[in-house]
Amino acid sequence: MLTIRGRLAWSYALALGTTMFVFALTIYLVQRSESLSELDDRTRLEADVIAALLQVSQREPGGVVVTNRATGKPELDFRVANLLAVIPDFVIVLGPSGEPLFLSADTRVLPFTEADRLLQVVSRGDAAVGFGRLTLGAPAGEIRYYVRSIVEAGAQVRWVLSGASTAELVLGPQRLLTVMVYVAPIILIASILIGYLLVGRTLRPVENIVDEVEAITDGRSLHRRLQTTRSRDEIERLTATLNAMLARLERNFASLRRFTADASHELKTPLTVLRSGIERALTHPKAPPEVMEVLEETLIEVKRMTEMVDSLLTLARADEGRAPLHLEKVDIRELFLEITETAGMLSEQAGVSVTMVIPESPQVLAADARRIHQMVMNLLTNAIKYTPRGGSVWIESAMADQRVNVTVRDTGIGIAPTDLPHIFDRFWRVDEARSRTGARPGAGLGLAICKWIAEAHGGSIDVKSRVGRGTTFTVTLPAGADVPAPPEEAPATT
Ligand code: ATP
Ligand code: MG
User: pTM to 2 decimals?
Assistant: First the structure.
């Protein structure tokens, strides 16, 4: 695909090429037609001059026509013939019965058949009078001639033909065409290059805008605005329009975040009341078993809903920049030890073996212990949840280049390559069709939170997966006690 810059440069070149071609063709045609009419004027003038010369010579004693002693045929007197020999073109003088009296040097050197064709023309006598043309073989090529009858030079001379080859004349315009053929590519290449550079300079402000918009629309920088120019052109309008759009987007995003945060917050209290109510009802000694069963199912759902509302609130607060990290020194070994018990319970329930490789030496991070715990637990529960019975899960941590890499690996169902780019999106789950409360319940918020936590700590999260083989999540976090600057907002939903 050609860029606008490339397309414009090509258009310039095409326009210039076409203009040059039309220009050269017009000059060629005009010059050619002028040259031909000059040639016609010349042949007519030559014929007239010959007629005048014969008229004058005819008054000399002996006339203009003599008999050749060798051939016995009539011909022009040698003095007249010498005068006519000066004329460079094809000249033929005929007597009244069509006998040739004079052939110019040009005519004599023609091959016999071609000279004969020229003679045939003038032999038609009065029928041939006027302009005409005849195409002979190279090098003479096309000949334009003029035939006139001579009445003023006595009875012995009757017709004269004067003709000239167009070959030498069209050479002028043809040379122009040749020059154009050589010069045109140079001009075209130069114009493409200059056009490309000029368009590049013209489009640079647009490219700058694209770069700036790209940087802004990563979701974290909607408060930023494009640099305004005072150029009073389309660029200034474009910048102003985009800035207005960014302002609207920022307002909309802000109100959306506020709404989500408020809604989740408002839901928390009723959910807590509901949960404690159900828990209290479950302790009722006289409740019939079927009621107990319903209450237990409801409690599971309420717990799930509470978790979802918690996750939503976390993300909404992070978006608003109201989820500050409480940084402290966190040793990964301690973290692993903390989750051992929960991991054991989860693995037992799911029938999946969980191997936790506790690092031998301390691996210290400057991090929010609660958030890091939440992130590792999210990855671990995912690994157990998406691994069928009998499978295995490993969790380990390694330190390299001042970075701590926590890896959660499983032999589970895996994720298809087409799904991988979406798994960190909010509310995104591979199998949407399956109920959120089915065999593998979830809201699709866990990984979004993991990504936010990793990035908020100045780290990253990476995933590799093969369908049916398993998945590996790697979280990379900066090691050491340096306290990273708290981020403004969480990654936005894409
Ligand atoms: P939640 O974590 O909010 O309870 P969830 O587990 O469905 O719900 P995420 O943790 O965000 O949501 O994961 C998103 C999707 O990515 C999951 O629905 C699942 O399809 C896929 N996924 C995540 N981890 C794994 C894994 N270890 N193996 C296979 N698929 C996974
Ligand atoms: Mg999850």
Answer: 0.59
